TrEMBL record:
Catalytic activity entry: pyruvate + ATP = phosphoenolpyruvate + ADP + H(+)
Pathway of action: Carbohydrate degradation; glycolysis; pyruvate from D-glyceraldehyde 3-phosphate: step 5/5
Name under which the protein is recorded: Pyruvate kinase
Required cofactor names: K(+)
Annotated ranges, domain Pyruvate kinase C-terminal: 395-515
Domain Pyruvate kinase barrel, first and last residues per copy: 30-360
Entry annotated with the keyword Signal: no
InterPro entries, A to Z: Pyr_Knase, Pyrv/PenolPyrv_kinase-like_dom, Pyrv_kinase-like_dom_sf, Pyrv_Knase-like_insert_dom_sf, Pyrv_Knase_brl, Pyrv_Knase_C, Pyrv_Knase_C_sf, Pyrv_Knase_insert_dom_sf
Enzyme class: transferase
Gene3D superfamilies, sorted: Phosphoenolpyruvate-binding domains, PK beta-barrel domain-like, Pyruvate kinase, C-terminal domain
Keywords from the named record: ATP-binding, Glycolysis, Kinase, Magnesium, Metal-binding, Nucleotide-binding, Pyruvate, Transferase
Length: 527
């Protein structure tokens, strides 16, 4: 992987751009999160998605009940077993989401300059004159001139299925609006977004808490995507809930930033969360279009410096209905990688899109190509400067391992870890080669029974750029004697050879604990 590395700032022979890319065992350093739904929930479809490069499966509870998602999850487990590819599970909460209640699920045609009323009285039928909504406080939150967007859930921005409204007047609990563009609202679910308006709804709804406490606990979910995170307190509240739910105390919280309120409190949210999802669909409505890129670049940079995963959404919307992305979308994916994004999250493209597998494959190829021209040297210097001196013990070891690997042109970095923290710190410095995270299980007890930890830590690295986990034999602790370390290292090297990332005479950098000391060593492989 390292041998192909070049920089956009250096002269590139144009003909070389057309040379076919070499297939790698790891499709791309940047990870792909796929939302599983009607078009991607069979064992066959999920197996194909895993082979194409999906490493995290997202279960979106804005639609579908627990039974539906459980059936999908059982199919995911079967697909993991069949393909022998690890995959993490992400539960996406509903949060403070405004929805249009359309019980009959009939298409609603709205004409430009017509009047439509948004009402909290959900007993009324949805029509081109009245749209019942799930929130009683909208009339108190908006004023004349405010903009409201209504579109199919996970709208792709197509003007034929989404509509812009302008508030004309507030009449009691009702909000009377003028339709700004002709459109037909189609699909089983429409969401509503009031631009730059505070919505007085909880971030964790009662339904969210119930789903996490039942479905989440039952399935030991790896990540929670906390929709509509607006304050650091939202993350703390979710963390408190998880801490009371046994195994879920290890579940990581990814704060989903969807509006200006979340943007304003971004720094505090980042400190509390385990990672950030930039929900560009809703952000693209809340922010002026010319400001979206600026927030994305600033937010990704802050995540990178904090060593926390940054996930970007809504990149190839057109692939919901088309086999190829637009030129702008292809460039957008590449720019997200060059900005430092850890993972790309696919929503409508895999949930209801016609080409879920092709979408994952295409995005993976773009990520792979962009990764080859990522300016690691500049990124490394910026990160070291940001961290400052004196560095912590672990940070110094991690940055040294990456620098050594680049200097000796190592094909891979192997990191022994039990919590996953050391491996994530190495990945923070964005080495040009894959990081094999060898997770050593730890024995733990709840006074009733003994069990091994490790599976959570392994799966949670599947959203971190450049990090590829493998679970070691629990009989070999991370801080063990030399003999057992060598046997675990041999297993890791064999895994690397079998996957094609390590070849004879390659150099490998190994990061491990020996007694109380952390050691970085360089080994050269023989035939």
């Amino acid at each position: 992987m390292h041998s192909n590395h070049l920089l956009l700032e250096e002269p590139i022979r144009m003909a070389s751009i057309l040379e076919p890319s070499k297939a790698n065992f790891f499709p791309a350093m940047t990870k792909i999160v796929g939302t599983l739904g009607p078009k991607s929930r069979s064992v066959e479809a999920i197996s194909a998605c895993l082979k194409a490069g999906m490493s995290v499966a997202r279960f979106d509870f804005s639609w579908g009940d627990s039974e539906y998602h459980q059936e999908t999850l059982e199919n995911l487990k079967a697909a993991i077993k069949a393909t022998k590819k690890l995959c993490a599970v992400m539960l996406d909460t509903v949060g403070a989401e405004l929805q249009v209640v359309n019980k009959r699920e009939t298409p609603i045609s709205l004409k430009e300059d017509a009047i439509v009323t948004l009402t909290p009285h959900q007993g009324q039928e949805a029509s081109n004159e009245v749209l019942p909504i799930n929130f009683g406080g909208l009339a108190k939150a908006v004023k004349k001139g405010d903009t409201i967007f209504v579109g199919q859930y996970l709208f792709t921005g197509s003007e034929t299925t989404s509509v812009w409204l302008e508030v004309d007047q507030v009449n009691g609990d009702d909000v009377v609006c003028v339709v700004k563009n002709s459109a037909t609202l189609a699909g089983s679910m429409f969401t509503l977004h009031a631009s730059q308006v505070h919505i007085d709804m909880p971030t964790l709804t009662d339904k969210d808490k119930e789903v996490i406490s039942t479905w989440g606990v039952q399935n030991k979910i790896d990540f929670i995507s906390l929709s509509y995170t607006r304050h650091a307190e939202d993350v703390r509240e979710a963390r408190e809930l998880l801490s009371k739910l046994g195994d879920l105390s290890q579940t990581q919280i990814l704060a989903k930033i969807e509006n200006v309120e979340g943007l304003t409190h971004f720094d505090e949210i980042l400190k509390e969360a385990d990672g950030i999802i930039l929900s560009r669909g809703n952000l693209g409505i809340d922010l002026p279009p010319e400001k979206v890129f600026l927030f994305q670049k600033a937010a990704v940079h802050k995540c990178n410096m904090a060593g926390k995963p940054a996930v970007v959404t809504r990149v190839v919307d057109s692939m919901t209905d088309n086999l190829r992305p637009t030129r702008a979308e292809a460039t957008d994916v590449a720019n997200a990688v060059l900005d430092g994004t850890d993972a790309i999250l696919l929503g409508a493209e895999t949930l209801r899109g016609l080409y879920p597998v092709e979408t994952i494959s295409t995005v993976g190829k773009i990520c792979s190509e962009a990764g080859k021209v990522f300016n690691q040297d500049l990124y490394f210097k910026k990160t070291v400067k940001f961290v400052g001196e004196p560095m912590t013990h672990l940070e110094a070891i991690a940055s040294s391992a990456v620098r050594a690997a680049i200097k000796v042109k190592a094909s891979v970095i192997i990191c022994f870890t039990s919590s996953g923290r050391a491996a994530r710190l190495i990945a923070k410095y964005r080495p040009t080669m894959p990081v094999l995270s060898v997770v050593i299980p730890r024995l733990k007890t709840n006074q009733l029974k003994w069990s091994f930890s490790g599976a959570f830590e392994a799966r949670q690295s599947l959203i971190v750029r450049g990090l590829f986990p493998m679970l070691a034999d629990p009989r070999h602790p991370a801080e063990s004697n030399n003999a057992t370390n060598e046997s675990v290292l041999k297993v890791a090297l064999d895994h690397g050879k079998a996957s094609g990332v390590i070849k004879s005479h390659d150099r490998v950098v190994v990061c491990q604990k020996v007694g109380d000391a952390s050691v970085v060593k360089i080994i050269e492989l023989e035939d």
